[in-house]
Amino acid sequence: MNGKISQAMLLALSSVVVAVAVLALKGVAWWLTGSVALMADAMESIVNVAAAVAALAAVAYSSLPADANHPYGHAKAEYFSAVLEGALIIVAALLILHQAWGALASPHAPEQAKLGLGVSVLASGVNALWAMHLMRRGRALRSPALIADARHLWSDVVTSVGVVVGVGLVALTGILWLDPLLAALTAVNILFSGFRLLRESFGGLMDEAVPSQTLDRIRAIVANEAEGALEAHDLRSRHAGRYTFLEFHLVVPGAMTVRESHDICDRVEAALKAELRDAIITIHVEPEGKAKQKGVPVL
């Protein structure tokens, strides 16, 4: 197991521990107050635990080496975890909306509001610190599962802050219907978060190309490093977890030897891999008669 994979596994396992701890704290806050809004916040933490477990399983599976049935490796498993997390978020939001609708009919004042809100603030603080660390490390390791988990936690932090403020207002003003209303607004925020995560995860499963800025940088590197070649065309790219797959055709003079064209390919690959970590590159060499006059001209 290489260093990046072991780091991702440790982060995913730590996420499970943090999620369970935060769930316990939010459960205590709900138990102390009886607030529907804090109940909604705790229910989202149940999703956090399930999502963290799914992320751990996905990171573990994606670390498996390539085999006969999966010659490109198992990195896409992380996108399935992100899709599952998005679906769980949506289910949690719908359950919270159901509870909030019922509570609107018979709202009640939160009990032990100060103590319950203090516990909730502590849980939110833990979530915020872990979300920042997880996002930073997830981006460094290029792990879709860890990044998805971090984004969900950020959504949870924002939601929790709103809930704490709202429940505090209920305790101060005595306007009881604010509590279920805040629970409903929490659910709507969670719902949008789930749909956004699903859209991004499906993009990875559908082999979306790298961003246009990255593609421009790739073209510039090929143009600058492929000295001796004539043109590069049919450039294609896709992401699969932490890997970036690139392939293109490189047109060389017809009289160029195999060794010379191979040296150009090696030079281009080295430059691209210096720019894109974990890049897997395929270059198809063609004679000058195959030039399309619409690819990347080589400088």
From TrEMBL:
One of its GO terms (molecular function) is zinc efflux antiporter activity. Residues 211-288 form the Cation efflux protein cytoplasmic domain. It comes from the Bacteria. The chain crosses the membrane at residues 45-67, 79-101, 113-132, 153-175, 181-198. GO terms for biological process: intracellular zinc ion homeostasis. This is Protein p34. It is found in: Cell membrane. Keywords: Cell membrane, Membrane, Transmembrane, Transmembrane helix, Transport. Belongs to the cation diffusion facilitator (CDF) transporter (TC 2.A.4) family. It is a multi-pass membrane protein. One of its GO terms (cellular component) is plasma membrane.
